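stage 2 :: seqdesign
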C-alpha cells in the first residue's frame, strides 16, 4: 500500500497545500456515492452502474475496489473538501486510469491537476490506457492535456443512457527517450 501524500503536484509540477491526493477513507464513500448518483454526471460518464442510485451495489463495488491489490486509488481533496477520486486498475493485464469529479467542481481544472499528479506520483507505469465516451468533451480535454492520444474506438452499451454509444480509447506512452512504443487497443471489451 502506498503512503499518504499530504501535498501534491499542481499542473506546473509545483507542490501545494490546497490540493492533494490521499488514501481513500470510509468517510469519503458517501460523498463518492452522491457524485456517482448525479444524473448529469452519469450521463457524461456514460459507462456507469446499471442503477447509480443503488447504495448496496455501490458499497459492494467499492468493497471490491478497495480490496483489489492491483488498484491504486486516491481521493482528490481541494481546499480541505473531497472533490473526487482518481484510480488505476488492470484490465486484461493493461493499466487503465479513471477519475470522477463531483459536478459542482467541473470546469475548475481539478481533473487535469489530479490526473497529472496521479500519473507523476502514484502510477508511473506506461503505456497507460483511458476510456471515454466520444461526446464527453470535458474528459477528452483532460486526457489530451495530460498527454494521452486516441488510439482506438468502439461501440459500448451505456447503462445510464440505455443505448450503445461510441467509446474512445486513449493511451499515454512513456517519453520518447524511454524506448517504449505505443500499442493500439484491439478491443474495448
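stage 2 :: out
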Amino acid at each position: 500500500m502506498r503512503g499518504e501524500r499530504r501535498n501534491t503536484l499542481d499542473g506546473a509540477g509545483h507542490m501545494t497545500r490546497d490540493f492533494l491526493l490521499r488514501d481513500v477513507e470510509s468517510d469519503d464513500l458517501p460523498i463518492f456515492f452522491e457524485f456517482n448518483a448525479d444524473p448529469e454526471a452519469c450521463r457524461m460518464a456514460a459507462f456507469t452502474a446499471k442503477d447509480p442510485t443503488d447504495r448496496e451495489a455501490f458499497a459492494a463495488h467499492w468493497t471490491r475496489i478497495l480490496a483489489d491489490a492491483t488498484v491504486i486509488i486516491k481521493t482528490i481533496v481541494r481546499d480541505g473538501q473531497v472533490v473526487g477520486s482518481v484510480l488505476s486498475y488492470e484490465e486484461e493485464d493493461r493499466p487503465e486510469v479513471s477519475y470522477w469529479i463531483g459536478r459542482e467542481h467541473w470546469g475548475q481544472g481539478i481533473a487535469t491537476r489530479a490526473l497529472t499528479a496521479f500519473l507523476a506520483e502514484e502510477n508511473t507505469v506506461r503505456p497507460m490506457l483511458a476510456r471515454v465516451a466520444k461526446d464527453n468533451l470535458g474528459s477528452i480535454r483532460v486526457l489530451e492535456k495530460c498527454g494521452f492520444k486516441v488510439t482506438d474506438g468502439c461501440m459500448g452499451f451505456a447503462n445510464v443512457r440505455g443505448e450503445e454509444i461510441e467509446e474512445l480509447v486513449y493511451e499515454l506512452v512513456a517519453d520518447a527517450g524511454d524506448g517504449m512504443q505505443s500499442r493500439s487497443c484491439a478491443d474495448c471489451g
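stage 3 :: structure notes
- The mean pLDDT is 84.
- Strands lie at 8-9, 15-16, 19-23, 72-78, 81-91, 94-101, 128-133, 149-158, 163-172.
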